């Protein structure tokens, strides 16, 4: 699957954030996008899950029915897609192209199936894993977030065990960040991206 041909002008490298549900990916990426205006662009995924209070269609996700999403997948519109906790999720080609067209660092928030599939493309992102300090803390944070039913919570915690093991596989992630204290984790994320951030600032200043 080709998103951007290797011979096209080199833009900034995209960033993949992955890790268990509740690890703090959205919190960290929202902080990053707030601090760095016009440097990052979020790859807005499609999902068949319902929007949570406060989430916006077209901003957090494109919320679609399974029928619509499956038809779009069959049509070849997606770079990758996966079933997670009973719902379909996927990154459309358009989601990434929209961000890359603006020469911004494209951030993808995807699960481990997504990571495996993106590795088969020529997207060449920086792979960052966000991990919770422990299963117990992950459960507490997910419960306190108050977004999941008991069933959804169980499914996410089961998936989290597998995601946590996956993050230990050598060579999968460029950086693994344990999100204990938010400010410390954020500092590590920023540090991992500083070169790419400076590159985009330079490009944007000269254009
Ligand atoms: N493969 C894949 N995973 C995605 C995509 N969008 C979101 N996810 C993952 O789906 C999982 C569930 O996301 P979500 O329902 O927003 O719940 P949350 O992670 O608990 O906030 C997370 O691991 C996300 O990283 C996507 O486009 N592709
Ligand atoms: N370092 C942290 N310490 C305490 N709570 C946190 C921390 N990071 C995130 N949270 C909280 O944990 C919950 C899960 O974080 P979230 O960003 O939604 O995770 P994800 O996007 O990975 O599913 C949220 O309620 C968030 O406010």
From TrEMBL:
Family: Belongs to the guanylate kinase family.
One MF annotation (Gene Ontology) recorded for this entry: ATP binding
Catalytic function, reaction form: GMP + ATP = GDP + ADP
Transferase recorded as keyword: yes
Main location: cytoplasm
EC numbers: 2.7.4.8
Entry-linked PROSITE patterns: GUANYLATE_KINASE_1, GUANYLATE_KINASE_2
Gene: guk1a
Protein name: Guanylate kinase
InterPro entries given in the database record: GK/Ca_channel_bsu (IPR008145), Guanylate_kin-like_dom (IPR008144), Guanylate_kinase (IPR017665), Guanylate_kinase_CS (IPR020590), P-loop_NTPase (IPR027417)
The protein's assembly and partners: Monomer. Interacts with RD3.
Domain Guanylate kinase-like: 12-194
Gene3D superfamilies: Guanylate Kinase phosphate binding domain, P-loop containing nucleotide triphosphate hydrolases
A GO term from the CC aspect: cytosol
UniProt keyword Nucleotide-binding present: yes
Localization in the cell: Cytoplasm, Cytosol; Photoreceptor inner segment
Keywords: ATP-binding, Cytoplasm, Kinase, Nucleotide-binding, Transferase
Lineage of source species: Eukaryota, Metazoa, Chordata, Craniata, Vertebrata
Enzyme's top EC category: transferase
């Amino acid at each position: 699957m080709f998103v951007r041909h290797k011979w096209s002008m080199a833009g900034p490298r995209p960033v993949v954030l992955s890790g268990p549900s509740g690890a703090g990916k959205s919190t960290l990426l929202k902080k990053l996008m707030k601090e760095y205006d016009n440097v990052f662009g979020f790859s807005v995924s499609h999902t068949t899950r319902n929007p949570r209070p406060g989430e916006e269609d077209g901003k957090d996700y494109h919320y679609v029915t399974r029928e619509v999403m499956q038809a779009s997948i069959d049509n070849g519109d997606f770079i990758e897609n996966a079933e997670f906790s009973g719902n379909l999720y996927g990154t459309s080609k358009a989601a990434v192209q929209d961000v890359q067209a603006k020469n911004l660092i494209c951030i993808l928030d995807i699960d481990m199936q997504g990571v495996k599939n993106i590795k088969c493309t020529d997207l060449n992102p920086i792979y960052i894993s966000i991990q919770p300090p422990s299963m117990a803390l992950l459960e507490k944070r997910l419960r306190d977030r108050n977004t999941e039913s008991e069933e959804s919570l169980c499914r996410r915690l089961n998936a989290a065990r597998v995601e946590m093991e996956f993050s230990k596989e050598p060579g999968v992630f460029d950086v693994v960040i344990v999100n204990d204290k938010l400010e410390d984790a954020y500092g590590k994320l920023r540090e991992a991206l500083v070169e790419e951030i400076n590159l985009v600032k330079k490009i944007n200043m000269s254009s």
